């Protein structure tokens, strides 16, 4: 299985921007498929949307992962406009971070129809933008395993809706998912109680390591579940010395 990676760090963007080729005399390196998470540029893109998208294409990125969906638009643009802008810069719109948390009422009643109706429109808009993946980037730690199971069921249903529309649905971690809920590690529970045909996981390797866990151990324990990765570090890649990128890249297709 091919694993797709996104660079997700503000510092990396700054360094790469400074080092981007600006002279025909410089050696042209082979182009690689590397996506960038636009959340890393959230402040810049607010003030210079067009310039930021254009610059990313010039720097050699081949795909973007959006993090600005709201009210049916991406960064204030219709799905079709956003797709056209990214493709004009020589990239593809590959993925998007977006989410809708369940209300206390929904958790108590198990009636998720209101949130699922929101997802119907969300999925349609992402499909119109050319997305292949929708990723939920955050959820709070549930108070009980019953609530966590409700979220797993919720994600399974969203994932099926996505699959029926030609998209894939996943979940992105931070550090708090490695806490325990009623003596069960939340992240492990989610991996074991979501359906692999409907839900994949986008491991953020930096946050996994910061939580005291090994990405490679998770690759081996749950093979085939990690379709996308976020590759980042505290600042520039490799600077912290804590992430172990060689081991990650050598085991990325587990």
Overall structural class, as computed from helix and strand content, comes to alpha/beta
Placed side by side, the strands forming the largest sheet appear as: 1-2-3-6-7-8-11-12
- N- and C-termini, Cα separation: 8 Å
Q: What average pLDDT do the residues reach?
A: 90
**Helicity, in percent?**
40-55%
Task: List unreliable stretches of 5+ residues.
Answer: 9-25
Tell me the β content. 15-25%
At CATH's second level, what is the architecture of the largest domain? Alpha-Beta Barrel
Question: Main sheet?
Answer: 8 strands, parallel, barrel
Number of helices: 11
Question: What's the total number of strands?
Answer: 12
Identify the overall geometry: globular
Total number of domains: 2
EC number: 4.2.1.44
Organism: termite gut metagenome
GO molecular function: myo-inosose-2 dehydratase activity
Domain Xylose isomerase-like TIM barrel: 54-252
